[in-house]
Design a protein that fits this description.
- By secondary structure, this protein is an alpha/beta fold.
- It contains 13 helices and 13 strands.
- Strands 1, 4, 5, 6, 8 and 11 form a 6-stranded mixed β-sheet that branches. It has a 3-stranded parallel β-sheet with strand order 9-10-12, with no helix packed on it. Strands 2-3 form a two-stranded parallel ribbon.
- The longest helix has 18 residues, at 229-246.
- Bound molecules: zinc ion.
Amino acid sequence: MMVLTTVMYHYVRDLPGSRFPRIKGMLTDAFRRQVAFLKDQYEMVDLESALAFIRGDYQPTRNLCLLTFDDGLKDHLTAVLPILTEQHIQGIFFVSTSYLDRCEVSSVHKNQILMAAVPFEEYRQEALVKLRELAPEISTEVSAEHVCKTYRWDAPEVAAFKYLINFVLSDTLRQRLLNHLFERYVGSEQVMAQEWYLSWQDAQQLQDAGMVIGGHAHQHNVALSALNDNAQRQDLERCASLLRSRLKPQTLWPFAYPWGKPDTFTPATVELLQRLGFCCAFTTVVGTDESGADCFRLRRLDPKDVPMKMSLATSSSEMDGKFQKMPVR
Ligand SMILES: [Zn+2]
């Protein structure tokens, strides 16, 4: 039985020569090697063939592989596109439509940039001091189980801190905290937004090169499941209409859920996406898909999962039920 393996990338760049060499990303050379490896092992498919396989309309003789890129990062134009073009591979690029105006840096990325710019201990202490000042009542206890499932590749104390910032704090509190720290350690948000994100024009350039753009919500500040029905509908409608009005026509508009774990979207999210004309949606649930899979709950692999994909069968259940609460100090 053949399967579809979808790989999910974020940062791909020449880290040592960049302004933030400690950003958690893949080196351009490592990406090039991984693409060559995948091309050797799989039939690299475009979105149309991948969906035909899922529907049962295409019976390949090899396992399929689809490459996806989240968050509308500038890297996708500068580092990824040349490699995909050279290898004649279609990539799917999921953009949060608010990022493409490049006026502000999202909270998630502010946190990532700060973690790369400031030694972790200093940053954590500074953040916790400011947090106590802004919201003395906030508990900094986080569930270790959720932490480890969300940030599989970080050291426990780093994962716990990221979880606290991204999932425990309210949106308003998170923004106040990160704006303070960003201004102190990094500087102009607008300058950084221009450097960090694709513009609408960049996204069109990806389309011109045969790539597919997909939705990744309009804002990427909270999980879609954390929004009330009205706010969720507004966000997704805005995302869908901006993609159609600011980009070139596409026959297929895919979607990727921000964060993408099963608790970050609801059946209402799926219904909305279908109504708005999205053809499928990708999660970050680790795994591959067989023909007949639910095309609004497609699974993906992290690049780090790729060489070890045979051990996947045990990876998700292994971690269940082993964790207690851990404090963020
Ligand atoms: Zn994302």
